[in-house]
Amino acid sequence: MNRSEDCPLRLCAAAVAITAACLYFCADSPQTALAQPTSPPPSLIPIDIRLPSDSTGTAGTLAVRVHTPKWENARYPDGAPVIIWIQGGFDVRGIAHSLPPDVDDVICITFIFPGGSDPYSGLSSDGIYDYRGEHCIAALRDVVLYAAGQLRDIHG
């Protein structure tokens, strides 16, 4: 790689390093900098459910959170759009999402992959985490089917 091709990569790496340093050193404490992602906007109401899923093993369930709009924010006559929020990377992440606070008219569904837990909410999913392998893919499938009305939670 010649010097002109290397320059944008160095600038990008420097920007990432500066952003990380600011988040770490500008926060009240290192724990604040590494805290859970933003909580749901106050205009969305979180509802925790347990979803039976083959991805978790025999009779296991997934921890799923459905964030719904308040009644006064509903503006779609045929139902609100649905977002299934999946945390990036290979690690098990929490059940929170990072939608902007002004998003108040959608349904956002988050979940914890099999074998994972969220220390902030105390929720966890049954099963064994397989680093986004077959179990995680099956869990996502079941959450999509739930969102589409094809699967029921443990309460029917």
Count all strands and give the number. Answer: 6
Strand order, largest beta sheet: 1-2-4-3
Oligomer: single chain
Overall mean pLDDT: 79
Tell me the β content: 15-25%
The global form is globular
Distance between the termini: 59 Å
- SS field, number of helical segments: 3
Query: What structural class results from the helix and strand content?
Result: alpha+beta
Uncertain stretches:
1-27, 29-35
Tell me the radius of gyration.
19 Å
Number of domains: 2
Biggest pleated sheet? 4 strands, mixed
Question: How do you describe this structure in short?
Answer:
It is built from 3 helices and 6 strands, in the order ααββββββα.
Describe the structure.
This protein is an alpha+beta fold. It is built from three helices and six strands. It has two domains: 3-33; 44-147, no CATH class. The protein has a four-stranded mixed β-sheet. Strands 5-6 form a two-stranded antiparallel ribbon. The N and C termini lie far apart (59 Å). The relative contact order is 0.18.
